[in-house]
Write a structure and sequence with these properties.
single chain, 283 residues, mainly beta, 5-stranded antiparallel β-sheet, 4-stranded antiparallel β-sheet, 1 helix, 10% helix, 47% strand
């Protein structure tokens, strides 16, 4: 393969080319692989898109709970749904901002299980649905946007839904906030909490009313989720933590383990040297 730089009306700028007799295979900037017929004949074929992938890192994957499908979110801003048994991409949709995480809620949120929730690098949360569009007497799967929310100023790093399917919680990287949404009221905002550091991960505690929030500082917070209507949003959506948060701080002991291992190796080397000296003296 060798890099080339030119554009074609059929595809994006090409990055790599593989020569194979009268056919060439191209990889474009959007993650697509094309077959191009370069033969000089009347039966010359038009460029054919063989496969299409994410152009860049995959930021999240969410499996469907009832069938062999999964959704992926790419840093290139594309959402893709694929059948992993047939190894086939069913549908894709591209957004302007880069993707950061994705959820495929179960039947506790949507009885048909056709809802996707994506988090993006600009702080936007998009709620999408899968449905079919009629195309020339055939039906083709498509992704439709239902809601677009912007609870955060920076990248959405984590999202989670409670077991009852009533509350969506989202966390951010830059503005260090935790936002709560009422799913049963068309994702109506409940409120948000300001935290001490960026959110990296989340998981539900034993109770569906409390969520464990991991921060980049190494701290884990146990946060009680507010109920819809509990927060007075007439003035502000900000929730004062108060007694709703338990804080757990963890300290790394990795350096102590490495130091102990280094000392053990040093002691073994000293013992080995002493044994050789004893042998030499005896001889």
């Amino acid at each position: 393969m060798y890099p080339i730089k030119f554009s074609h009306s059929f595809y994006e700028p090409v990055y790599y080319c593989l020569n194979l007799t009268d056919q060439k295979y191209f990889q474009d900037a959007s993650g697509g692989i094309w077959r191009l017929d370069i033969s000089v004949s009347l039966t010359k074929k038009a460029p054919e898109l063989i496969q299409s992938y994410h152009a860049g890192p995959v930021r999240g994957i969410a499996p469907c709970s009832y069938t062999h499908m999964a959704a992926s979110m790419g840093a290139d801003g594309t959402v893709r749904v694929f059948d992993y048994l047939r190894k086939h991409t069913l549908v894709r949709k591209k957004y302007k901002s880069g993707g950061s995480c994705i959820l495929w809620p179960g039947r506790n949120v949507d009885s048909k299980c056709v809802t996707l929730i994506g988090g993006f690098s600009d702080g936007v949360i998009r709620v999408m649905t899968l449905d079919y569009a009629e195309q020339e007497s055939e039906y083709e799967l498509k992704i439709s946007l239902q809601h677009a929310l912007k609870p955060h100023k920076g990248e959405v790093t984590a999202m989670i839904i409670d077991d009852e399917g009533k509350t969506l919680v989202t966390g951010s990287k830059d503005d260090c906030t935790l936002f709560f949404f009422d799913i049963t009221s068309n994702y109506l905002p409940i409120g948000f909490m300001k935290l001490e550091a960026p959110v990296t991960t989340m998981a539900w505690s034993n109770s569906s009313k409390r969520v464990l929030v991991g921060l980049s500082s190494g701290v884990v917070l146990e946060v009680e989720c507010p109920d819809s209507g509990e927060v007075d949003s007439s003035v502000t959506y900000e929730i004062q933590p108060g007694s709703k948060i338990n804080r757990y701080e963890f300290k790394s002991i990795g350096y102590k383990i490495k130091k102990a291992a280094h000392e053990m190796v040093k002691i073994k080397k000293e013992k080995s040297t002493d044994c050789r000296l004893c042998v030499d003296t005896t001889a």
